[in-house]
Amino acid sequence: MLSIESFKVKGVEITIAVLWDEKIHGIAYSLNDRKFAGERILEVVRFLGRRGILTSTEVKKSEYPKIVYEVLVGNIGNPEGFEYLSLKGLTSFEKKVYEWLVKNVKRGEVITYGELARALKTSPRAIGGAMRRNPYPIIVPCHRVISRENPWLYTPKPEYKKFLLEVEGWTS
To answer: Where is each Methylated-DNA-[protein]-cysteine S-methyltransferase DNA binding domain found (predicted)?
Structure first.
């Protein structure tokens, strides 16, 4: 199923699209552009399909977009939000990275790719790949992982990353 809902955060409309059945399979969001959320959720559908997870895009209302919104604004913690995720189709490495990130990097904090790599005894490149493939943005806060040289690198929409970090109280 697919649920899509829009919310206002700091005067900005955020559209949150969630693929789900019993739990959340994937999340996409966009700022002031509902069409982009639709495009991103189709990318998540393709990603999950390549991993053997078939999802329906039949639109049906659910509580899941509101839960993602509540995580974004801090009414629900990322660890609590993590419980709603199916984690289907993820590698053991991705699960390990996402779980560590959710448990250890709190709202208003950031970590560099290198620091996260050292914590998990892997390479920054491997961390970057896991962040790029994250099907659960906001709940798994890949936006909190930044480059040492420039926090806005390695993201399709730097203004989205900046917005999420500002909502959480981080300032560069």
So the answer is: 93-169
| Range 2-167: architecture per CATH | 2-Layer Sandwich (3.30)
Give the position of tokens 């993201």.
Answer: 155
Tokens of 78: 């990322």
Is 81:67 a contact under the CB 8 Å cutoff? Answer: yes
Strand order in the sheet with 24-31: 2-9, 12-20, 24-31
Burial of 26 (0-12, 13-18, 19+ CB in 10 A): buried
Per-position DSSP letters for 153-172, written without gaps between them:
-S-S-HHHHHHHHHHTT---
Domain boundaries of the chain, sorted by first residue = 2-167
Q: What is the pLDDT of residues 103-158, one digit of tens each?
A: 999 999 999 999 999 999 999 999 999 999 999 999 999 999 999 888 777 777 88
Pairing state of beta strands 24-31 and 111-112?
unpaired
User: Which position among 142, 145, 146, 165 bears the catalytic label?
Assistant: 142
pTM of the model: 0.95
Q: Are 75 and 25 in contact (CB under 8 A)?
A: no
- Is residue 142 flagged as an active site residue? yes
Residue 131 burial (CB count, 10 A): 23
Amino acid sitting at position 131:
M
Both tokens of residue 160? 């989205």
